[in-house]
Amino acid sequence: MYAIVDIETTGGQPKDSKITEIGIVISDGTKVIETYETLVNPERDIPYFVTKLTGIDAKMVANAPKFYEVAKHIVEKTKDMIFVAHNASFDYNHIRKEFKEIGYEYKRDTVCTVQLSRRVIPDQESYSLGKLCKSLGIDHSNHHRALNDAVATSKLLHLCLSKDQVELENIRNTNILYDRLDVHNLPNKTGIYYFLNRSNDVIYIGKSKNIRQRVKTHLANYHTKKGQSIVEQIDKIDYEILGSELVSLLKESSEIKKYNPVYNRQQRKKLSAWCTYAYTANDGFFRIAISNKPINQAFYINSHTSKQAAREALFKWCEKYRLCQKLCGLYKAREKEPCFNHSLKQCNGACCGQETMDKYNERVQQLIDDQEIPDKSFYIIDRGRNNEEKSCIKIENGRYVGFGFFDRSIHYTNIIELDSYIDSYEDNKDVRTIIRSFLHQKKVRKIIPLE
Prior knowledge:
With 451 residues, the chain is of the alpha+beta class. It contains 17 helices and 16 strands. Strand 4 (82-85), helix 4 (88-101) and strand 5 form a beta-alpha-beta unit.
């Protein structure tokens, strides 16, 4: 059974607004069984723009019951029901907040018809209730009044269920997970997050610019075999806000090495499987190879997420540094036969004896050098964990030293003072790849040389 709910409020956020009207439709999934509606006295002024939108003004609610007077009816009407609403987090969180203020914890399994209709009725121009009803031919008069919106939502629910009932169960199971793991209270900020099992072991560590949304994406995979494997083991979610995407990646890399979570190990095999290497062939010319295993006596150039990604990077390097596609393994030809790019005058002829070894190798060495962090000492200044601070990453003689946070009132040209904020971390190939990528893409806010 379903309780399809719609509310009108004095504002958009639960912490700042109160309910002015509630409409509830009880349904068995195919037809309406019962309806309930009531105005609610919010015990505060109703903003003019809200009255213009809903038609509900102060006079209409002056003699209406206060929320605590209708709370029992809401509990009874929705008991053992699946709580359904269009943009369910809005209605559900407002109602939970009202109950919390009177000392009662209101909890129901929830389903959002925005999510459900996106899955069951794809490719709609808009998924707002009004436009969706118009597109689907659902009668929806007197928009922005609670019961009318609840009735329209019930018709949308019936339509979705007639097409696919499995998706509703998937959404419901996901929302049950959200409640169990307190996902709604996770921050929508940049940082890292930890999945822990019942033994308090870390089983997965991730990084995101929006922790809450990224965790929701993980949990939404509950109905897949792969997703279910990890989700069923999660007993707790922890997190650390870091503010800077670069700092988050560096901390994530460090924490993964520290805890060695089982699901990061599986992922790491895929993400870091392919690398580019430069080695000297018997003829003295540098060759560049792509391999998922280390190559003896070869220079490591970079890591790539797949073999195809490595090939794409190598094609770009050939163009930028005028390297020979044949010597880079991208073009097959007989010995001394020129590569195709030579005919286009995009290769200087290392493949056919028209360029000396020294000149060609000099450009390959330039590629290798460019992929390294500059052999210098400097600070990278980036976002902090909040508006009152900034982050700093220290590089010394091309090696990663660590990172820290400092008050934004401190002038970051005071190098000696910045040193006191740095926490030391291990320098390794992974963190160098991360830093190098950000420097090349110019995704850092400021670089301060250390003199």
